Amino acid sequence: MAKALLGYIGGPDPRVLAEMRRLQQRVQDLETQLVRVQAENDALAAARRDSVLEGIEVPKAEPALT
Asked: How far apart are the first and last CA of the chain?
């Protein structure tokens, strides 16, 4: 009776297995996208940092008055 209530008659439900495969694939796709976006973000941050530093003109230091 307990097996019938839990759905174990005839082995694993193919719909559950298909849904689990689909979700595992979705997780893998999202992890791949996360790695790609993080790499793109790092590249953009490095480019921004380099361009900001190039745009700043620093005058030559003058000697302190004594």
From this structure: 97
